[in-house]
Amino acid sequence: MTLVEQKKRAEKEKQEPALTLTKRDVTRLEKAARRAAPRKAREPGFLRRLLDEGAQNRLTPGDTGWNRPGGGPAGYAESPFEVQGSSVQVCGFWPFITGAGLPLIGAPLGRHLLRNTLVTGDPIAWFTAGIVSNPSAFVLGQPGLGKTSLVHRIIAACTARGVVPMVLADSRPDYVPHILALGGQVITFSPGQGHLNPLDLGPLVASLSLIEDAKARGIALSEMTSRRRSLMEGIASMMLGRPLRPHESTCLAVAITALDPDLQHAPVLGELIDYIRSRPEILRTNVLAYDDDHEYDHRLQDLLDALINLGPSGAYGDLFSQPSDAHITPGVPVVFDISGVNENDSVLVAAVQSLCWNLGSATVSAEQHLASAGKRRRKTYLLVMDELWRILRASDDMVHFIDTITRLNRGRGIGQVMITHTMNDLKLSKDHLTSTAWGFVERSAMVFLGGLAPSEMGNLEEVFALSGKEKQLMTDWTGEAVVDPKTNRAALRPGAGRFILKVGKTPGTPFMTHLTDLELQVSDTNRAWEMVRS
Q: Region labeled Disordered — which residues (predicted)?
């Protein structure tokens, strides 16, 4: 462009009017610019924070409560200002001076009888929180005062936290409706109802061969082999009414191992009997009857008699001689319904209870081995031993078996609740067995004491240092209900649902449990009287 052309263009631009924006156009353009600019991130509101808090962990309550269906989280919860000190130091402060209460950890048990505050606690929650050193509880009280209902409350609360309840010998049965309501497993076992092979510890035990580490695999398989031998030896001794002799015990152990050395294909009782009758060389050597068939048969005749009595030709038919109809499903609430077993047959009761308890403990132990090897997720179990007196009097072996559980439960991820009527139930036929049974109460971190007569307390006063007020409460709770003359029906007994929670020798916490309508449906222990009550 020439110089002349440039000058003409400049003059022309000067003559053209300049572009002018109105105020409305300026406002419109500023709004458009603000909308196009990146926005700053807003801080989440209260509701969003509440939802995020519940999404992070729905198994434990947050600062505002249980944020899940039926949990009812609080909209706003302000922590109160607390000051600790002696009554002399804080007497001038106002208002609301009160003593320290129990920690709000565990199952909601009921309201405090003196302060009307909430009392919470269960053996597993308190153990994991470090409040007690042993995940065990013992419940004592006369019949009809709510012991089983209290345990139902603990089961429900523990299940909500992921704990798996196991009722391995329900003889009434009181826990079947509750386990069904939890979506659990009910295994019915009695003559004419189900079969359980005592040589079959379940498919979880068979999967122990999947553990890669040879040493860990060997330890797990050795333990399960020992469990199976001890179970069969115990049941055989119950049939004989005496302990097995050394050569009988050796023969039984060798025969079981020879039939199933790797725990992969459990034999049935008939196969075990036929194998011993065949006089294999390995058994001849251990029985010291090398070439003498008569001596071999003579030394093992009593053992064979016991095994045959358990078999299909014996007194119990095919109860123990057929393959198991059902196995325990790991990680699912389970109950063994043994209510069909004849209570007058003490030998059968002892054998059934021993089998059920051994199957349950073997499943838990096998799962722990697999969890340590990274094959399964580790679970926590709650064993419920109701009507403990029946279990202890079934056989001496059950006393020692439960004693082992109470001593080793922490290492196996097991908590337990034991229930019986009085300390007199723990007085067994032999003094050393009585001492062992009383040790169950002494080692229990939590003891729930219901209505007891003075003569039924046993050594409770020595172990837990009961005060005069606590003993008075327990004796008052044994009174009978008062009849209403208008309806000719009695109210609840004075001690129904009332307990004292003792932890060591510290003062007890009296509370009362109120059951909800849903709990009443699954914890009714008087179903046998439904027709009379209606």
A: 1-24, 53-73
Q: Which of 425, 352, 353 is nearest to 191 (CA)?
A: 352
Is residue 331 within 8 Å of residue 203, measured between CB atoms? Answer: no
Q: Which of 267, 83, 179 is nearest to 522 (CA)?
A: 179
What is the C-alpha to C-alpha distance for residues 402 and 416, in angstroms, rounded to an integer?
10
Tokens 């209403």, located at residue: 484
Judge whether 416 and 372 are in contact, CB under 8 Å: no
Q: Which of 421, 510, 429, 445 is nearest to 143 (CA)?
A: 421
pTM: 0.76
CA distance 522 to 174: 8
What are the helix (H) ranges across 373-413?
Answer: 388-394, 396-408
Q: How far is the C-alpha of 196 from the C-alpha of 318, rounded, in Å?
A: 9
Which domains does the chain show, CATH number per domain? 101-163+380-534 (3.40.50.300)
What angle is formed at CA 506 by the lines to CA 504 and CA 510, rounded to 5 degrees?
Answer: 100
Q: What's the token pair of residue 24?
A: 């409305």
Residues 6+ apart with CB under 8 A from 242: none
Whether the link from the prior residue into 454 is cis, omega within 30° of 0, is no
Q: Mean pLDDT per 10-residue run, the chain (534 residues)?
A: 64 58 79 76 56 52 68 64 67 56 82 88 92 91 89 93 91 90 91 88 89 92 91 89 90 93 90 93 85 88 92 83 90 92 84 87 90 89 88 78 80 87 86 87 89 82 82 86 67 82 88 88 69 51
Residue carrying the six token digits 């804080």: 90
